[in-house]
Each structure stands twice: as C-alpha cells, then as structure tokens.
Write a structure and sequence with these properties.
Elements: H1 15-20, E1 24-27, E2 31-32, H2 44-57, E3 63-68, E4 71-76, H3 78-87, E5 91-96, H4 101-115, H5 120-134, H6 138-145, H7 149-156, H8 163-170, H9 176-183, H10 188-201, H11 205-218, H12 233-246, E6 249-255, E7 258-264, H13 268-278
Length: 292
C-alpha cells in the first residue's frame, strides 16, 4: 500500500467507484461485528459526540461489509454502527465488497490508524496478529498500513511491557513515548521505579527519557544490606490483598517462574485465625485454641 493513501488504496482500481454507486441501506440487526476489529474499546466522550452527529446528520460515510453466509459482516465502520444503534437508527448505508480474513484486519486497522482513534496497545496487538495469524513480516505489515518498518517494530515493543503498564497506555495515563522508553529498560526494578515516577511526578516523555538514561548509566547494582527489590505491582497488589484477608503479615518471594508465600503469626491464636480464614470464615468464638 502506498503510504498516505489509506483504506482506499486497499481496494483494487475501479472497484471503489463501482462500489460507491452500489451503496444500499440494510437493517442494523443484520450486521455482525468484525471479528478482527483491532480497537478494544472506543473512548466514551468521542463516541457520545459521534452519536450526536449521527442523530443530526445520519451516517455520512457508508459502512464497508462482506457477505458471510446469510449474514453481513462488518469490515470497517464499527464506531459508526455503534453510534447508529445508540441514535436509534433502524437502517444504515453499506457498501458490499469481498475480503479475506487478513483483509478484514488490514482494513479495520488502517481505518482506525487514519482516524487516530486507536490506542497504541491495540495497534501493536493488531500488528502482532497480522504477523502471527497471517504470517506477514514487519516489512509487509508496515507497507500495508502505511507505516515505516521501524515504526511498526517500535510499536510492537510495547507488548513486552508488563500488563499494568500496557493498561496505563491503553487508558491514556501514559503516552506511547513513555511506553517506548520503559520498553528500552531491561532491568525490571529500574523500569518499575521509572514507571512510578512518571505517574507520581507527571513526567513528560522528554524528561522520562533523560531520567531513564541516568538510571541505565547508574545500573541496577544492589549493595549488601539494601532491602529486596520491590515487587511487580501486580504481585504487590496480591500480597496486600492476602494480608488484608488473613489479618497477618504476608510476603511473596518470587523466584524464577515460581516462588513462595510466607505468612507470619505471633502466637497460636493468630495461627488458628489464619487457618479459619483460609477455610472461608472466622474461628468460632466458643472453640478453644490449642497451645494458648
């Protein structure tokens, strides 16, 4: 695909003008969602604005669909279809075309990228699907979506980040640039320190890159007597919940792919209470405790 041409360049020459002359209206209930839709969820404020526009002006750009058995499957236009449903439209304009499963993903991805309403993580996952499911190279993906190969490669590096960081990017709490800086740090402890600093201090991407460079130069070395490296925030959250549930000190010590959980108690009473909470309830008040 020639860069900058977008979704129109994926349609063979002559087909577009023919398709545009064959626009038809179909009932909303006949349309099935695109199984290859790369965007996980539309931003609600933008969706409300689109719904209001549809109420006032209707669907200005036809949805692109393909036949699949007796149903019509959406190729591009998921946001417009959702807006039409919310606005109470019974029928929507569509253009029929043939498309393979790979083209379904390509077309939906290109449309979202051009409208800039797809978040970086969804885009990276879509690139990954094109490579994994359709055996494309990064070069081929870049050509099809109108990006450079380095841009695709850098975007896919975001998928190496822990799920918590990916979710922050998906929600807009971190910019794509923050994610790329974090993805360039190989030491987990250093990466989490920087991640917390970005959120706590509202660091810009530029400031994040400067701090990251200093952290990398300083290295992750740990002097004797220093406390253990801080846990993955996801593991720390589980540790906190266990502590609250058991009413006792809990430590999770990861090691390789496994690890161990340590639960501390001060006396037999606390041990008995921990036992009953693990069993799903509090210790009966009239039950004597061994060893007290």
């Amino acid at each position: 695909m020639e860069k900058g041409k977008g979704i129109r360049s994926l349609i063979p020459t002559g087909m577009l003008s023919e398709a545009e002359s064959m626009i038809q209206e179909v009932p909303v209930e006949r349309l099935q969602p695109n199984r290859y839709q790369p965007r996980a969820k539309a931003e609600e404020t933008a969706m409300e604005e689109l719904v209001e526009s549809v109420r006032m002006h209707g669907i200005l750009q036809p949805l692109m669909v393909r036949k699949r058995g007796n149903e019509l499957e959406l190729i591009a236009g998921e946001r417009r279809l959702e807006a039409a449903k919310r606005a109470g439209l019974q029928r929507v304009p569509v253009v029929m075309r043939e498309a393979t499963d790979r083209e379904m993903l390509e077309l939906a991805l290109v449309e979202n990228l051009q409208r800039e309403d797809i978040n970086p993580i969804d885009a990276a996952e879509a690139y990954g699907r094109l490579i994994k499911e359709f055996h494309m190279t990064q070069e081929q993906v870049a050509e099809r979506v109108g990006k450079s190969r380095p841009a695709v490669a850098n975007a896919m590096r975001l998928l190496n980040l822990p799920s918590m960081m990916q979710e922050c990017i998906r929600q807009g709490k971190l910019e794509e640039g923050h994610g790329k800086v974090l993805a360039g740090i190989t030491d987990d402890r250093t990466r989490y320190r920087l991640f917390r600093s970005i959120l706590r201090r509202n660091l810009s991407v530029r400031d994040t890159a400067i701090i990251a460079e200093k952290m990398i130069v300083a290295g992750p070395a740990r002097r004797p007597g220093m406390p253990d490296p801080e846990l993955d925030p996801n593991v720390k959250d589980i540790e906190d919940r266990l502590r609250s549930m058991l009413g006792a000190q809990v430590r999770i010590r990861p090691k390789g792919k496994g690890g161990k959980i340590e639960v501390s108690y001060a006396n037999w009473m606390e041990l008995d209470q921990i036992y009953w909470r693990l069993m799903g309830g509090d210790r009966p008040k009239d039950r004597p405790v061994e060893g007290v």
